[in-house]
Design brief:
This protein is mostly helical. It is about 65% helix and about 0% strand. It starts with 16 loop residues before the first helix and ends with a helix.
Length: about 70
């Protein structure tokens, strides 16, 4: 389902009570809202796994071939 803002995608996720308690503890450092916390955790995980850097590298290589 697309949000009114262009380019924004909403997803619904479910957490156990224990997982939610952990997310609540991260609210002060990872974001102000529930969505901010979840979004920042996902982005931090992607960065830690070098997914973001690898994707950027592949895009740069593809552009240099063109």
């Amino acid at each position: 389902m697309k949000n009114r803002k262009s380019g924004v995608k909403r997803v619904q996720v479910s957490f156990t009570e224990g997982q939610w308690k952990l997310l609540e503890r991260l609210k002060a450092t990872m974001g102000k809202t529930d969505a901010d916390v979840v979004r920042n955790i996902v982005l931090a995980w992607l960065a830690e796994k070098s997914v973001i850097a690898s994707d950027a590298k592949h895009k740069m290589e593809a552009e240099s071939v063109d």
